[in-house]
Design goal:
By secondary structure, the protein is of the alpha+beta class. It has 2 domains: about 5-110, no CATH class; about 120-315, no CATH class. It is built from 10 helices and 9 strands. The chain has a 3-stranded antiparallel β-sheet with strand order 1-2-3. A 3-stranded antiparallel β-sheet has the order 4-9-7, covered by helices on one side. A hairpin with a 5-residue loop joins strand 2 and strand 3. Helix 7 packs antiparallel against helix 9 (about 280-290). Residues about 1-90 have low confidence and may be disordered. The structure holds zinc ion (ZN). Zinc ion (ZN) binds near residues 232 and 239.
Length: about 325
C-alpha cells in the first residue's frame, strides 16, 4: 500500500464533500470555502494526470494547509473522509486492478469463444440417442463396423448466401478430428456447403441424399457383389455438395450420372455454385489431411468424393 508520509501529505490536500460541507457549517463564513474554489484547477489537473475520475466532491474538497487542524477534526468525525484519502494512493493500484479486470474480461471472452467454438464444432461418441437415429438405417442390421469405431461430428456450415446452418456428420474415429478441422476451416473461410445432415434423414438412401445436395460420410454398405465394406461403409469417405459434384461413370459406353438430377453438373467446364475444383479450398484441405479426391480418378469421376487411401485403411482394418 501507500507509505504513511505520502498519505498524510495527500490528506492535507484532499477532502470529500462530507468534510467540505461539515467544514463550511463549522467554519461558516470563514474564507476557506472561497479559497478552495480557487484551487480547483490544480486539482482537476492532478486528476487528469492520474487518470482518476474527478468526482464532484473532489472539486470542492481542497483546503488550505493552515486550516489543517480543523480539517483533521472533521475528518475524524466523518470517517468516510478517510476513505476519500485512500483514493489517491490507491489510484495506481486501481489502474492495475482495472487492467487486471480487463485482462480477466478478455480471458472470460476467450473462454466463451472457445466454449462457443467447442459447442459448435465438437466430436462425440455415438450416444444411445444418436444410435437410435441411425440404427437400421445407415447403421444397418448387418453392419460389421463396431459402433465404437464411429464418431458424431457437430459443425456449422454456410450456404452460398452466407447463411449459417448446423451440421451433423458421422465418420470413422480415425478421421474424426481431421474432418472436424476441415469443416471448421471451410466454415471459417466461407466455403459454401449447402447441407450437412445425417443420411438417415433420407432413409439412408444415398440417391435421395445426393439429389438434395446433402454432404455426408457414413452409410454402411458392402462394395456391390463383394463382402468388402465400402469406404462410406467404414465412415472413411466424405461426399461434399453432392448434387453439384456428381459421380460419373461410363457403363456400356453410356455415361451414368449420380444423382440423376446432377446431369447438368457433369459438364465440368461450366461455372456454377458449389462446384469442387482441383486446387480449391475444399480440395486442398482434404488433400492436406490425407484424402484422395474422386475427381482425379481415371476411369470414373466422383467429384463429390474424398476418401482415405486403401493402403492407410489397411493399417486400421
Ligand atoms: Zn462418396
Amino acid at each position: 500500500m501507500i507509505d504513511e508520509a505520502v498519505g498524510k501529505k495527500l490528506m492535507k490536500r484532499r477532502k470529500n464533500i462530507t468534510g467540505a460541507l461539515a467544514l463550511c457549517i463549522i467554519l461558516s463564513g470563514i474564507a476557506g470555502c472561497h479559497a478552495r474554489q480557487q484551487e480547483r484547477p490544480a486539482k482537476a489537473e492532478m486528476n487528469s494526470q492520474t487518470g482518476e475520475d474527478p468526482k464532484g466532491e473532489d472539486t470542492q474538497s481542497e483546503e488550505k494547509p493552515q486550516e489543517e487542524p480543523k480539517i483533521i477534526v472533521v475528518n475524524d468525525v466523518a470517517g468516510e473522509v478517510n476513505t476519500g484519502h485512500e483514493e489517491m494512493p490507491i489510484a495506481p493500484e486501481q489502474n492495475r486492478m482495472s487492467e487486471q479486470t480487463e485482462k480477466k474480461d478478455e480471458q472470460i471472452d476467450e473462454q466463451i469463444d472457445e466454449q462457443k467454438t467447442t459447442e459448435d464444432f465438437y466430436i462425440s461418441g455415438i450416444t444411445d440417442e444418436i444410435f437410435a437415429r441411425i440404427q437400421g438405417l445407415s447403421f444397418k442390421d448387418d453392419c460389421t463396423l463396431p459402433r465404437e469405431d464411429l464418431r458424431y461430428l457437430h459443425v456449422l456450415h454456410k450456404d452460398i448466401d452466407g447463411n449459417v446452418h448446423e451440421g451433423e456428420m458421422i465418420v470413422n474415429v480415425h478421421i474424426a478430428e481431421d474432418v472436424l478441422e476441415i469443416l471448421k476451416e471451410l466454415y471459417e473461410q466461407d466455403y459454401p456447403i449447402e447441407k450437412i445432415r445425417l443420411v438417415d434423414e433420407y432413409g439412408a438412401d444415398d440417391e435421395a441424399s445426393m439429389e438434395d445436395n446433402n454432404s455426408s460420410c457414413f452409410n454402411f454398405r458392402f462394395v456391390p457383389r463383394t463382402t468388402k465394406v465400402s469406404k462410406h461403409g467404414l465412415g472413411l469417405a466424405v461426399d461434399i455438395n453432392t448434387l453439384y459434384n456428381p459421380y460419373i461413370t461410363t457403363v456400356d459406353g453410356r455415361i451414368n450420372v449420380e444423382p440423376s438430377n446432377g446431369e447438368p453438373y457433369a459438364d465440368r467446364d461450366r461455372e456454377f455454385d458449389y462446384k469442387i475444383e482441383k486446387g480449391d479450398l475444399c480440395y486442398r484441405l482434404f488433400k492436406e489431411h490425407g484424402f484422395e479426391w474422386g475427381g482425379e480418378w481415371k476411369n470414373s469421376k466422383d467429384y463429390q468424393h474424398f476418401e482415405i487411401p486403401s493402403a492407410r485403411i489397411n493399417e486400421w482394418y
